[in-house]
Amino acid sequence: MGAAEKAYLENAIDRFSPQVAATARAGLNKLRARFPGARLMVYDRRQSLPIGFAPADRGSAVFSLVLYPRWVRFFFLEGIAVDDPEGRLEGNGTQVRSIRMDDRAAILDDPYIRRLMAQALKIAGANLKTGSGGVVLKSKLIR
């Protein structure tokens, strides 16, 4: 991860409340440990900060962590294809499903959610364990 990109991401996270920033950092740490090869695709927006987790060999993300002013959500970008018998993923669109993150991102350690993540990776044919694990700034806010 380049120093400039890492600094930009840290500054972008710091724009949010301490609680949202702490939740996001906890989630990022857990996801980075689980998917060390994923490229982080950062899309800086005025009211949100989407951070996509994409394989090294292509641009489309499988998951994203999105910071909002009052909470953080974890998105399955092909969530409609994931078999979720407990109905824990939220959303009724034609593609994406998500779940709200708790303060310490413990939801990412939940065995059920981990199985859904493994299923999503299989559906996408993606490997997020190998690769450079860099950060790609897809858009920056002009300050």
Q: Short description, anyone?
A:
The chain has 143 residues and is α+β, with helices and mostly antiparallel strands. The chain has three helices and six strands; from the N terminus they run H-H-E-E-E-E-E-H-E.
Poorly predicted ranges (pLDDT <50, ≥5 residues)?
none
Number of strands: 6
Query: How many structural domains?
Result: 1
Cα radius of gyration in angstroms: 14 Å
Number of helices: 3
CATH-derived topology: Aspartate Aminotransferase, domain 1
- CATH class, named Alpha Beta
Sketch the topology as an H/E string, one letter per element. Answer: HHEEEEEHE
Q: Average pLDDT value?
A: 91
Instruction: Summarize the main sheet.
Output: 6 strands, mixed
Based on the structure given, which CATH architecture is correct? Answer: Alpha-Beta Complex
CA(first)-CA(last) distance: 23 Å
Per the principal axes of the C-alpha atoms, what is the gross shape?
globular
Characteristic key phrases:
143 residues, alpha+beta, Aspartate Aminotransferase, domain 1, six-stranded mixed sheet, 30% helix
